[in-house]
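Suppose you are handed a protein chain with no further information: no name, no annotation, nothing but its sequence. What can you learn? This example shows the usual starting point.
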Amino acid sequence: MATQRDYYEILGVEKNADLKTIKNAFRKLALKYHPDRNKSADAEERFKEIAKAYGVLSDKKKRAQYDARGFSGVENYSYEDLFGGMDLGDIFGGLGGESGLTSGFGGGGLFDRFFHRHPTETLKGNDLHTKLKVPLETVLRGGEELVRFSRPITCHDCKGTGAKPGTKPRTCQECNGTGKKVINRQQQQEKGTINFQQITVCPKCFGQGTFIDSPCKSCRGRGQTEKSESIKLKIPRGAEEGMSLRIPEHGLPSTQANGPPGDLYVQLITAPDKRFERIGHDLWRNETLNVADAVLGTRIRVPTLEKDIEVNIPPGTQPDTILRLKNKGLPCYNNDSLGDLKIRINVHLPEKLSDKEKVLFEKLRELEK
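A reasonable first move is to predict its three-dimensional structure. Written in structure tokens, the prediction is:
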């Protein structure tokens, strides 16, 4: 493994160098080693090394992190973080366009060209998210459920270009297909010339970069069509509430022609059930007793996910008592253990009494005295 060189050493500046000194050192080295100007075998590697050093040392926050912790302090920054805001006009003045340096800097150019993200590289489409209600019985045993969803897909006829088959979109000459217009200007001040670079949406193609003279009839020039799909999704036994399952390449289409689509993520939601409420792996159910059954005790028949069973209610059961039926709940995902069925007891007090009931309750009150 090659030894990583100190960023100050790469640029040939002292550790207390100010931003102007760092910028001048970078400008000099970049002009020397830019691969469009220097054809030596190691020019590109030297150029990338110089650019990365400048990306760290030219930013106050990144430089402080590097000074404090060395390479580990800036290891989490992507190349796009380092170079995304690099200003050609400010660094190279009027030399940017004349020297060909714009091919390596600005607008992601340096990142794209020298750090392995080329304009021809296909980009994956965005992921699509949907929800699926799953019955408790499927959670208990596992099984298949049908997922229905709609999504835009790349037009089969034009392959996503939006142009009529046999034709191609026409590149905007105003922006050379970038969708952006770059304006470089200079302003004279007492301390010297200040260079400005302004990037705006191309006024001719409105940021599209191309024109479609003959739109595809199938997608009307959009490059996408809407498709409704149904897929059988395998639900694992003990699937947890909110669990997401991935279906590869069933997401949104790529923004580039022939690019791979994103993925579909299906979030599992427990379907409502009149019998139970799901809390984690436990099932909860309410049962209401009359006063006599609560006082004297009784047996009641309650449902489970497999069959109805009889449950003994002990004498003197109080309101809000919770009875636990072990292992009658849901299985744990990737685990052999089972949740419980918990029964919350409610006691119903009669609102109206018959004459005979009043007599009996009076006698009961007298006995309690």
